[in-house]
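#struct-help
A.M.: can someone run this one for me? Single chain, 444 residues.
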Amino acid sequence: MKPLRMLWILAGLLALAFFATPAVSRAGAQSDAPLVLLLKADGVVAPSMREYILRGIQTAEQRKAELLVIELNTPGGYISIMTDIVEGIRASQVPVAVYVSPRGAMAGSAGTLITLAGHVAVMAPETIIGAASPIDASGADLEETAKAKEVEALTALARTITTRRSPQAIELAQKTITEAKAASSDEALEAGLVDFSASNTAELLQKLDGYSVVMPDGERTLHTANARTERLDVSFIEQVEQALDLLIDPNIVFLLGTIGILALLIEFSSPGGWVAGFIGAVCLALAAYGMGMLTVNWFGIIFVAIAIVLFVLDINAPTHGALTVAGVGTFIIGALVLFNSPGVPQFQRVSVPLVVGTGLVMGLGFALLLGLALRTQKSPVQMGSEALAGKLGIARSEINPHGQVQAGGELWSAELAAGAEPIHKGEQVWVEKISGIKLIVRKK
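D.P.: on it. Structure tokens below:
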């Protein structure tokens, strides 16, 4: 058994290595031709994109690639993450070409500065670049001083990474931040904001052959005419991070937190199972991760906790729903304080109708539990043998006038009721009453 077990362990490790190792697709056979590594960065500028691009830069350096091409299509995202990507590109020992593609793609908001940070900036026809104002990237309700600081910092960064370009290009780069200006690929090329326009990767490599770029160690001429291309795919871990990027949505985080709380309440009210507890723990863990990514006011957690306590207390308190009503109001206030406090970016705010609707549904659910509890309290208590009166049973022997009956999951001595006809084994009986330790029965 031990060798078989070792084989299973080895197979599991190989499978894990397969999924965790990023796939590299080759467009040409191995040769002495220069290597061009291709990355496809598509989506919001979020942690998963940062990890993917920085890993691509590291891989290109390790393999001594001639060029790293980042195919970019993004509406924008977090400024802090964009800054990390820009720093990684500027520090790269391998030339980086940021290629806004395919047709119809955009390098919006934070994507604008990522494109300009490349040693070569290229756009496919019918693509756009710009709208890099921090209002759009971080929400329309930025406080005036904070907005001024963000704008000044971003325009300084734009000037730094476009110093080699024309004054017209530098002015356009700053306007994408100060005025949220956007430009088409033709307009950006005419202003000198980007270096080339290319319909596909093959055309891009042809145009870059013999082109000189400025690297940290000096000027370098690219040789890409006969280069072989390899695509670095997203790894399994990065795919998981992309799924976690969904937690940037405050509405999803709010729903996960609510489901997690309710699931744990169900688990605590009827312990012994594991499904509700497992679901609750996972949902709360994901919600905590999401809130760690978002800008939240943790003071709201206190109101949410108070609301849950009020819901639970109302089940056993003689208030007949008053605490549930108070709990609904407290829950709604707590959620809005948590996600929608002043200073929280607009795109990180939770939907007010969603919060109100969820609070009302929770209140309705606890009201139903309260009604069930009150009904149970008013119903007569029936325990032991007293609960058998009026119930059905099965004759386990002939009863004439004495015998045995199976009732309530137990075997009882039975006696025929006055005037009742004999009962054969296996027939159903009515339990009229209990006399001591005997059931008085008659045939159904």
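A.M.: thanks! The radius of gyration is 35 Å.
D.P.: also worth noting: The CA atoms of residues 270 and 276 lie 10 Å apart.
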